[in-house]
Amino acid sequence: MFFRFLFKAREPEFLLEGDIRLRHLGPQDAAIFRDHLHELHYVDFRDRFNGLVSDPWLETYIARSLDNAICIGAFLGDHLLAVAELHTGGSMGEHEAESAFSVVADWRRKGLGTLLIKSLLKAATENDISTIIVETGPQNHAMKALARRFGARMQFEDDRSVGRINVAEGLRLAGRRRSFPPLPVAASGPAGLPPGALPAH
Fold first, then answer.
1. Among 22, 43, 78, 132, which residue has the least CB neighbours within 10 Å?
2. What angle do CA 133, 3, 114 make, to 5 degrees?
3. pLDDT greater at residue 21 or residue 91
């Protein structure tokens, strides 16, 4: 089975836009990554993992992702708002990687996805990855539209919408897009769940 450890930039913080700071996540960020996933709306959590998962499974997933994949977090202060991941190995080809995204409810559709896809495209070029696979639930119209903006052709496969972004083409399209204004500060309040509630898993 082919597997490659992705090289991470020496300088972890690499992009600043408005009040949002993006940086690579590592094993030391396991707790805040876990808190971020627990903060997701129930439906978003279910869509992110294609169903509900147990706590032990989630702990293993977090550790494996932070050790072996490229994970980029978007922060407002110390609050982790969104994470983009780039995974290789398994049944994917040598120059392919699968992406994954999670955004807390108050920050959906505010430009974080675009920032994170651009950062993944940059990371892909630095790691000899030519194709990024995007997989999401068929009802996640925002994610499908975002992938299409960077050249993906979404198709329905096994109850999931799957598309592939050619990294060179995605970077070309990213360069043509106007820069986004600074992101607004999220309003305070629950992230789509009753107070104190967490996704069932």
1. 78
2. 30
3. 21
